[in-house]
Amino acid sequence: MLPKDESNRDYTIYFDEIYGMSAGFQYAEAEKNREGRRIRMGFQNEMRQMFLRVAAGETEPEEWEKWWNSNKARLEEVLTRGDRGRMMPALWSANYYWMVKTQSGVAYYFHAQGRPVKTSGYYEEKAKEEEIRHRQKSMEAYHRDTAFARRPWEEYLERHPTETITFDWKSLLGTPPRQKPVITFGYKNVRTMQQRKECGEELKLRLKENLQGKIAPVAKAYGMKKAGPKTFVREKNGLVSRIQFIGYFRGGGYEAMICYVCPIYAIQYGILGLPGHICQGENFQRMHKDWGVIQYGTEAVDAAMVERINRKFDDILTYLADGVLPEWQKIDSLDTYFTKERRDYLKATEKGPNDPRTGRPMWNLDNEGKTDPWRADDYLFGVWDLLTGKETEGYVRLEECVRHNTNYIENHVKEFPEACSDPRDAMAVMYRNAQLFARTKEIADAEKRKNAIWETYEEVCRFMRYYHGLAKKTERNG
Questions:
Q1: For 460-474, how does the pLDDT look when each residue is reduced to its tens digit (9 = 90+)?
Q2: Is residue 202 part of a domain?
Q3: What is the pTM of this model?
Q4: Residues 402 and 435: beta-carbon distance below 8 Å
Q5: What does the alpha-carbon distance between residue 413 and residue 421 come to, in Å, rounded to a whole number?
Q6: Is a pLDDT exceeding 80 seen at residue 459?
Q7: Same domain, 286 and 167
Q8: N or C, where is the chain less crowded by C-beta within 10 Å?
Q9: Which residue from 276, 241, 296 is spatially nearest to 146, judged by alpha carbons?
């Protein structure tokens, strides 16, 4: 409502004041909006420049973290939630591993805007160096933490020296000697049965070349002999060591590799193995990474594939020659195999250090108090107790092994009558062996019982040489 004033001048003054205030307010608001746009545009330019620097690998993790945290509120206004999550994941920390994730998020951001950018490999290289450095520190700490158990084992070995094998296995790395020329295929992925056959044959040839050119020489240097085209074995002082490549059940390459050392009377499960850093450490993990290259025959075995196969066998050779075989060489008798110093050392190395990237143990062989489902350790230690005169303890272990497996074996044998004599049926073989040893308890005379134990041992070992591939097919007498 206008004021009830008769003066035109007063009305004029009033309207001028109202109009002037409105115009001034609108002007101020416009200036404020323009200033806001200038600020936003300025920040967006700054943001794009920072993103381009990340794409080029020119921003260090600490600089990126500081810039992001100081601009977090404005970034929430400019970027979508998805972009923010890709560039700065919830668990992000200032290292090169996470900068690789950030760079990927930045590349996605530009790609989504229709302006893809080329990214540098700087962060990936630094992340690899960073991971190697952190893993080395973790392994150094692991070896310090297990030194209390390693020293007694090393002192035992000094008192019981074994033959040292000197073999230049590194000279076997690379292209196998006399490798046949590579075939050029007119396709990449297998589509037809004929192509599958061609690739399967070529894959088997390349596997054979590497097996004969790399694995066979180092196995021979350690006294192992061939027990088939893909198996190497050795017997020494009551122990057997075995390396076997398992064929892929659908045809093609190798599904897995089995390595074990154990008493001849034992089976390969539930046994005292190798220190964790050897059987499950870095060489093992590198060997198993991309194992499919020697397993499946679904791609043309061209020059690139042959090179990958050669590199994978380099990993296998390194795993065996730089860890497994030298460690086996230290175990030259049953006494050494079962010695307390070795058992304590193996126990201390069951659990590896935490992986610096995942926070989980690099390996974990600890059964965490769980009972062996086959009772294979009861059989392993039960027989050793009998052989070393600890009959009470030995018979308790063996009877537990037999009792636990009786129901399963009785039903199993009804379907497979020869199971207890079949090397492919480890559980049935172990059950029969344990049963034979347990029966000697029925002999009342101590001397006769002792003789019966050793006779049973010799008979079981005679069959188990066939089981492990040390001898030709052998029939059981018991």
A1: 999 999 999 999 999
A2: yes
A3: 0.84
A4: yes
A5: 11
A6: yes
A7: yes
A8: N
A9: 276
